[in-house]
Design brief:
Layout: E1 3-7, E2 10-13, E3 18-25, E4 32-39, E5 46-51, E6 58-60, E7 68-73, E8 78-83, E9 92-102, E10 113-116, E11 120-125
Parallel strand pairs: 2-11
Antiparallel strand pairs: 1-3, 3-8, 4-5, 4-9, 5-6, 7-8, 9-10, 9-11
């Protein structure tokens, strides 16, 4: 059974920073790409970032590129999302997810991920 547990969300003022963590268990973490998605009230879930199984490749949506940074520690089976220069429009529930298949290129499509965390709330005040 795969489990993903996110932490690090909270309330922050615009321009501030937060670091999200996602601890994984139940799968050989170092063989799977990881993704971050978010869902704001009344909106569909959207892609934020992804990182390859080795950590050598990273991907970002245009809306967060240059402000967010994804990383992973395979020894700790944990993926991180460092969020800087936060904006009110970044307010959402953030989810981490693990890819369905091993290796390959990380995807920005949610259906390519089969296990999801419970989500962590990020609220950015103006």
């Amino acid at each position: 059974q795969v489990q993903l547990v996110e932490s690090g969300g909270g309330l922050v003022q615009a321009g501030g920073s937060l670091r999200l963590s996602c601890a994984a268990s139940g799968r050989i973490f170092s063989s799977y790409n990881m993704g971050w998605f978010r869902q704001a009230p009344g909106k569909e879930r959207e892609f934020v970032s992804a990182i390859s199984y080795s950590g050598g490749s990273t991907y970002y949506s245009d809306s967060v590129k240059g402000r967010f940074a994804v990383s992973r520690d395979n020894a700790r089976s944990t993926v991180y999302l460092q969020m800087n220069k936060l904006r009110p429009e970044d307010t959402a529930v953030y989810y981490c997810a693990v890819s369905r298949t091993r290796w390959g290129t990380p995807s920005d499509r949610s259906y390519e991920y089969d296990y999801w965390g419970q989500g962590t709330q990020v609220t950015v005040s103006s």
